[in-house]
Amino acid sequence: MSLKSFAARLLAYKVHHDTQKWAQNPIETQQNVFRQLIAQAQHTAFGKDHHFDAIHSHADFVKYVPIRDYEQLKPYVDRVVQGEEHVLWKGKPLYFAKTSGTTSGAKYIPLTKESMPFHIQAARNAILSYIHETGIADFVDGKMIFLQGSPELESKNGIQLGRLSGIVAHYVPQYLQRNRLPSWETNCIDDWETKVDAIVQETITQNMTVISGIPSWVQMYFEKLVQVSGKPVGTLFPHFNLFIYGGVNYEPYRAKFEQLMGRKVDSIELFPASEGFFAYQDSQTEKGMLLLLNSGIFYEFVKADEFFTPNPKRYTIGEVELGINYVLLLSTNAGLWAYNIGDTVQFTCLQPYRVIVSGRLKHFISAFGEHVIGKEVEEALRQAVEGTSIRINEFTVAPQITPQEGLPYHEWLIEFEQAPDNLTEFALKIDNAMRQQNVYYDDLIAGNVLRTVVITLVAPNGFQAYMKSIGKLGGQNKLPRLSNDRTIADQLPLL
């Protein structure tokens, strides 16, 4: 056993012990977080506007602080972006994590000196939790790769901004730097295909033990490794025994991954976002991820089927139940308050509190981490038909993850009243409009993870026939504009 792996086991024991302290006292832990957040933000603009000086309980908080999403919080965020201090949180943030927006372009999520350490600690503790549970620590002596965005940052009114993964790259501890790949120079390559080629060249002869990233990106890396080496990844890297992922569901990729690897590999699921690091898989045998209750985040939960009713009940951690779909609300030490990130979760265990990500509050496509929403597809179609005689009766969009040939794609299933003369040209217009709106989708196309939009013609009255077949024809029933699976797409009658 090396000194580094021995030290990792000692640290894993300490972190496990510390985790148990708060995990066994979840209600008290969250109450302490709540009190600290209110106290520290009392003199901010948001705190004054929402009577933080009068908030002494969760009931007071519900009374004074309504549920908001980014668009509703944006007037405060805009003040922070413009350089104003003490708006949502004391002082100024250290960074803005720039993410894809919904109705107003890019979103700027603040990261503060209080919130940033928890992003780093959570990622570290996920690995240490695995070491404590399994006793396996030898992988710390090998090379680890984290497929992520560029660490190069911009500046906006004196505050640095970039993608979260790029910001986090600046916080890799010194003792891991010698083990970490790819190199800084390779990480800064903008073109994803070029970047993957460089990563393959840097790693193919190394003793890779840990590989981490969004499954769709990692799959592309694995495919290139197999193509170049002629060997399964598990043979090429005989000591590769841990895959760490987040962002999208791994299950649709698992069979393909195991084929590329040639064997099974342990995995750890993470639940990070720009707004906070919420949970990580703390057990290889139990379902769900440990909800991080001591990480500067106060959680509230609203039952998803009640969310759009007037004044839905906001539950705290001590009030949740197993198996119910909850909308996740956050109040954080980065200055988000009763903030709806759009994710829904279900609890799989209450001792300790473990969750799974059950979906999004609204319809979406994120089969590859692209986070495409309804507004984006509707706007793309509007732009494509503008100034033409094309007329559309109905449409829906679904991912095709496993095509018979070629790269995966977004399939647009359209029932035309007046079809375009050139479907390929029309599809390209849609694709370009999508790329302009959604940076994640643009990255996937530019990186040859996805190919451009594929249009499939639906038979006349095909959507009506489908809605009738499921008992939802007429009334206020609406066809989802997009789905993250092929439940609808595979049932539509096609031309």
Describe this structure in words.
The protein is an alpha/beta fold. It contains 17 helices and 20 strands. The model has no long low-confidence stretch (mean pLDDT 90).
Features:
495 residues; alpha/beta; 11-stranded mixed beta sheet; 4-stranded mixed beta sheet; 36% helix
Instruction: Classify the beta-strand content into a percent band.
Output: 15-25%
* Low-confidence segments: none
Structure classification: alpha/beta
Kindly report the average pLDDT value. Answer: 90
Separation of termini? 64 Å
Biggest beta-sheet profile? 11 strands, mixed
Helix fraction bin: 25-40%
**How much is the radius of gyration in Å?**
24 Å
| Major sheet strand order | 6-3-7-8-9-10-11-15-14-13-12
Separate helix tally: 17
The 3D shape can be described as globular
Topology:
Layout: H1 3-23, H2 26-40, H3 45-49, H4 58-64, H5 70-81, E1 95-99, E2 107-111, H6 116-134, E3 143-146, E4 154-156, E5 159-162, H7 164-168, H8 174-177, E6 180-181, H9 184-187, H10 192-203, E7 208-212, H11 215-229, H12 233-236, E8 242-245, H13 251-261, E9 266-273, E10 276-280, E11 289-291, E12 297-303, E13 326-332, E14 339-350, E15 353-360, E16 364-365, E17 372-373, H14 374-385, E18 391-400, E19 409-418, H15 423-437, H16 439-446, E20 454-457, H17 462-469
Parallel strand pairs: 1-5, 3-6, 3-7, 7-8, 8-9, 19-20
Antiparallel strand pairs: 1-2, 4-5, 9-10, 10-11, 11-15, 12-13, 13-14, 14-15, 16-17, 18-19
